Amino acid sequence: MAELAALDDPKVRQVNEKHGDDHGVNLGRLRALAKRLKTHQELARRLWETGDTAARLLATLICRPKAFERQELDAMLRAARTPKVHDWLVNYVVKKSPHAEELRLAWSADADPVVASAGWALTTERVAKKPDGLDLAGLLDVIEAELKDAPDRLQWAMNHCLAQIGIEHAEHRARAIDIGERLEVLKDYPTSPNCTSPFAPTWITTMVGSGRR
Predict the structure, then answer these.
(1) How close are the terminal C-alpha atoms of the chain, in Å?
(2) Among 25, 62, 92, 177, which residue has the least CB neighbours within 10 Å?
(3) How far are the Cα atoms of 31, 57, 89, 157, 205 from residue 67, in angstroms, in the given order?
(4) Are 144 and 159 contacting, i.e. CB atoms less than 8 angstroms apart?
């Protein structure tokens, strides 16, 4: 914790706070620290229990994802209220867990939109890597009905799923683009040069046209 405190940079913290994250540690330095520590499950658990954002980010990098029980991961996600901790927990830990599919189903139906967004993130992973058994048309039905008015975090996750369906599955591409065009979610989102717009129709056509799929 002392080492993490020494890495805290007020300028980094100021930038992060604009995105809802309350830490000031350069992520490159955080990854270097994780590389030095290597996998250390007990330390990861202790870091998580501090509640400190930088400590929790470090915990996701040095933990053993398969060592967590389903209930433990559920509790951790519900406690991960800053965007970066939430994202890293889902991407670096839950996706590698044997409980990922069970949690995907439970979280997708959760009344808490932040928890539900994690379920959609796991669904997007399956759309891209393990689509067998998914009702893609049914997912598009839900997205079409709920995307426009979804809270920000949930909307972002659902929109990513919409784009991924269009990118990966040609038979659903026209409908995915049509839904995006009609709902206009993230159409005017500011995008840096050389970055792909999160507006689903643009995202889909860019990725398919470039062959990055």
Answers:
(1) 40
(2) 92
(3) 21, 17, 14, 26, 40
(4) no
| The pTM of the whole model exceeds 0.90 | yes
Residue 211 has pLDDT above 80, yes or no: no
Query: Residue 182 forms beta bridges with which residues?
Result: none
Burial classification of residue 95, based on how many CB atoms lie within 10 Å of its CB (0-12 exposed, 13-18 middle, 19 or more buried): middle
Find tokens 């992973």 and name the residue.
125
- Mean pLDDT (whole number) for 44-58: 97
pLDDT tier, 20 (very low <50, low <70, confident <90, very high otherwise)? confident
How many Cβ atoms sit within 10 Å of the Cβ of residue 107?
25
Q: Percentage helix, strand, coil, to 5, in the chain?
A: 70, 0, 30
Rounded CA-CA distance 103/155 in Å is 19
Tell the residue number behind the tokens 């599919």, with chain if given.
101
Is 71 exposed, middle or buried, given 0-12, 13-18 or 19+ CB atoms closer than 10 A? exposed
Residue among 163, 77, 141 at smallest CA distance from 112: 77
Question: How many Å apart are CA 178 and CA 144, to the nearest integer?
Answer: 10
